[in-house]
Design goal:
By secondary structure, the protein is mostly helical. 59% of the residues lie in helices and 5% in strands. It is built from 12 helices and 6 strands. It is globular, with a radius of gyration of 20 Å.
């Protein structure tokens, strides 16, 4: 009896109508790019911070960063001969820099924008980003001593923290990466609370450490980046746990600030290894047979 060849299950794409593999992640709402939710959420956070909380970033500095990321994205589109200019990923990087990066020098802010977008095109492995663009730029500038991140710049107001969590939850579900966010938050919160219980600290101390805007943005908008996280769910959960462990080690053993940023940057090169050990379907913002999405 002749062997029956193995087949791969397929389904029609809700956005293009093309037949794609069954393992390809799909959008919840056909026709809407998940990055639109990210841009809306980040822009709303930035506007609220500037208008209501008087953040250190001024509108003119934010405009400079956003103009730079768009210019670099456009120039790179021409240089790499991409089929079309796609500003959404660059806007996400630019808005994240506006929210997290602090520097007295406009030149350093421009350098951060160039590093963030440029890293997407230069630092790649098998068509996939190695580093989250915002994380790469901030860590590189931290090494110069000319920039800093204020982890508690929005305070610990419960309402604002809840707002970030709600908006972030919407975003990561649209980006199909809620698992990595939830795994990271569970691991990091467990480490912070567990350490305080071990030391006999009052519960108000670990809760205060967990109630800041930068942590929520890291969890919902940075580590959840679908283009820089492992392809499989098991790989993402493992990666998130390792980042949480690394961040706690930097903060509580090395006594350095920005532990999560350092941890994510240091562990991001492990993603290709995790993809090889625990393979899964590659995420694409849109279903593109030519694979030219950046």
């Amino acid at each position: 009896m002749a062997a029956i060849p193995a087949t791969t299950a397929t389904f029609p794409s809700p956005t293009t109508g093309k037949i794609v593999p069954a393992g390809t992640p799909r959008r919840r709402w056909p026709g809407l790019d998940p990055r639109l939710y990210q841009i809306t959420a980040l822009a709303g956070l930035l506007a609220y911070g500037v208008l209501r909380l008087d953040l250190e970033v001024r509108p003119e500095r934010a405009a400079l960063i956003l103009a730079t990321v768009l210019a670099v994205q456009y120039g790179s589109t021409l240089l790499w001969h991409l089929p079309a200019f796609d500003p959404m990923s660059a806007l996400i990087s630019g808005l994240s820099l506006c929210l997290l990066l602090r520097t007295h020098s406009p030149a350093v802010a421009v350098a951060g924008a160039i590093l963030a977008v440029g890293s997407k095109f230069v630092v790649r492995f098998r068509g996939k980003h190695i580093f989250n663009p915002t994380n790469f730029a901030i860590v590189a500038l931290l090494l110069t001593g000319q920039a800093w991140v204020s982890p508690g710049q929005w305070g610990s107001v419960a309402f604002f923290g809840f707002l970030i969590v709600c908006i972030g939850g919407l975003v990561v579900n649209r980006a199909a990466r809620s698992d990595v966010t939830l795994a990271f938050l569970a691991a990091y919160a467990g480490l912070v609370i567990g350490r305080s219980l071990w030391l006999g600290e009052p519960m108000a101390i670990p809760l205060h450490r967990l109630q800041n805007g930068a942590l929520q943005i890291f969890a919902f908008f940075m580590i959840s980046d679908p283009r820089t996280t492992p392809d499989s769910r098991a790989g993402r959960v493992l990666f998130a746990t390792l980042v949480a462990l690394g961040g706690a080690y930097v903060q509580f053993r090395l006594f350095r600030t920005n532990g999560l940023l350092w941890s994510l940057a240091a562990l991001s090169p492990l993603v290709p290894i995790l993809d090889r050990i625990l393979p899964g379907p590659r995420y694409q913002w849109t279903v593109e047979p030519q694979g030219r999405s950046i």
